[in-house]
Amino acid sequence: MVNIINGSVLAKKIRGQVAEDIGRLKKERGVSPKLCVVLVGDDPASQIYVRNKEKACAEVGIESEICRLPASIDEKNLINIVKKLNSDANIHGILVQLPLPDTISAINVLNEIAEVKDVDGLHPINMGKLLKGESPLFLPCTAEGIIELILSTGTEIRGKEAVVVGRSNIVGKPVALMLLQRHATVTICHSRTRDLGAVTKRANILVASVGSAGIVHGEMVKDGAIVIDVGMNRVAGKLTGDVDFESASEKAAYITPVPGGVGPMTIAMLMKNGYLAAKRAA
Ligand code: NAP
């Protein structure tokens, strides 16, 4: 029978630990962590994500500041704002909420965030260190959350066949590298992969980060696999994942639900990175 990996419970435990660590940092070093979220435009989903981050910050004792900017801002001005935040000693972590308007290159903006304040772990130096197997200052939050979810099953990653569907910079690539670092045999699939099901069926650990509701279904899952569903798709007003939960559950040994799987872990890892940024600055 399938075991459901409860990301909400695990995330709560991690946030509790982070809150304790922050309490100690405040008491012993007099440092209060502060994050600045840069929000450009009025994308409704981004507004919700930012509100959730604000709530989580308040819960663990991180001060948060939302820098709201109009969608009409140009890249140069946005980069100047990021540079100002870099030099503000009271701000320990900066994150730019994606997506940015089409007129702005997200890569150019993210590259300007100081490596030491890069709580999303997307700066080229942090990503480069991950690629080289060195220790980045911060790991990308969703990818780190996925690794924690896998480890929570008690399964050893070493030697396992892992398949990651999706090659985004924020999820697919970093999680593949982190699985590789833990000695899994890793395959990355994408939109040009031929016979996706034949590849996913090999996976002891299957991560789906595509953005297409139910693209992974039971016939594509190996018996006894761990299935991590990153997808967040709105179907008839309901949040649903990239994995067809019902059919995949008949094959998998462990599976994450949507909602309540990867989503809460992403925020918990962001809180951890916020704490780490302030601790290093102290
Ligand atoms: P993304 O940048 O939207 O890219 C999607 C990836 O899926 C691409 O690599 C694409 O391939 C691949 N793909 C598209 N169609 C495919 C197909 N038919 N077969 C195989 N691969 C296919 O990805 P993302 O940013 O990782 O987001 C993916 C999903 O995760 C979205 O639903 C997003 O909302 C969700 N998400 C959730 C969290 C969370 O915290 N829960 C965090 C981040 C993202 P190509 O590269 O060839 O185009």
UniProtKB/TrEMBL annotation:
Binding site for NADP(+): 166-168
Domain Tetrahydrofolate dehydrogenase/cyclohydrolase catalytic as annotated: residue spans: 5-120
Enzyme Commission (EC) number: 1.5.1.5, 3.5.4.9
Pfam families in alphabetical order: THF_DHG_CYH (PF00763), THF_DHG_CYH_C (PF02882)
Gene3D superfamilies tied to this protein: Leucine Dehydrogenase, chain A, domain 1, NAD(P)-binding Rossmann-like Domain
SUPFAM superfamilies found in the cross-reference section: Aminoacid dehydrogenase-like, N-terminal domain (SSF53223), NAD(P)-binding Rossmann-fold domains (SSF51735)
Coiled-coil regions listed: none
Entry annotated with the keyword Hydrolase: yes
Source species, domain of life: Bacteria
Database matches in InterPro entries: Aminoacid_DH-like_N_sf, NAD(P)-bd_dom_sf, THF_DH/CycHdrlase, THF_DH/CycHdrlase_cat_dom, THF_DH/CycHdrlase_CS, THF_DH/CycHdrlase_NAD-bd_dom
GO annotations of cellular component type: cytosol
Molecular function per GO: methenyltetrahydrofolate cyclohydrolase activity; methylenetetrahydrofolate dehydrogenase (NADP+) activity
Pathway: One-carbon metabolism; tetrahydrofolate interconversion
Keywords, sorted A to Z: Amino-acid biosynthesis, Histidine biosynthesis, Hydrolase, Methionine biosynthesis, Multifunctional enzyme, NADP, One-carbon metabolism, Oxidoreductase, Purine biosynthesis
Catalyses which reaction(s): (6R)-5,10-methenyltetrahydrofolate + H2O = (6R)-10-formyltetrahydrofolate + H(+); (6R)-5,10-methylene-5,6,7,8-tetrahydrofolate + NADP(+) = (6R)-5,10-methenyltetrahydrofolate + NADPH
Keyword Amino-acid biosynthesis: yes
CDD domains: NAD_bind_m-THF_DH_Cyclohyd
Occurrences of domain Tetrahydrofolate dehydrogenase/cyclohydrolase NAD(P)-binding (ranges): 140-281
HAMAP family named among the record's database cross-references: THF_DHG_CYH
Main function: Catalyzes the oxidation of 5,10-methylenetetrahydrofolate to 5,10-methenyltetrahydrofolate and then the hydrolysis of 5,10-methenyltetrahydrofolate to 10-formyltetrahydrofolate.
Assembly information from the UniProt record: Homodimer.
Entry protein name: Bifunctional protein FolD
Organism the protein comes from: candidate division WOR-1 bacterium RIFCSPLOWO2_02_FULL_46_20
Taxonomy of the source species: Bacteria, Bacillati, Saganbacteria
